[in-house]
Automatic annotation (TrEMBL):
<protein>
    <submittedName>
        <fullName>Uncharacterized protein</fullName>
    </submittedName>
</protein>
Length: 87
């Protein structure tokens, strides 16, 4: 089943209002989007050297957390994660 926890390519998912970790009175929503790239490049560090690597069929999962406030203010926090780590 596709959801904000397991997104499918080309769709944006937003979770229902969830309890925040550590602060149950504070609410949070999580938005995710999976983006596929036929080819991509990524930086890697090998020992003391930074190299640029070519990646084929890479996927990127973008996650944004929106903290709900009782004043109606949303504070976003974003994160990008590479899903295909095969170099």
């Amino acid at each position: 089943m596709d959801s904000y926890q397991d997104p499918q390519h080309g769709k944006t998912y937003i979770s229902p209002s969830l309890d925040s970790f550590g602060e149950p009175k504070r609410k949070v929503r999580i938005a995710t989007k999976l983006i596929e790239h036929p080819e991509s490049y990524a930086f890697a560090q090998i020992k003391n050297e930074v190299v640029l690597r070519h990646k084929e069929d890479a996927k990127t999962c973008i996650t944004a957390k929106f903290f709900e406030d009782d004043r109606g203010i949303f504070v976003p926090a974003t994160r990008r994660q590479w899903l295909n780590e095969n170099f």
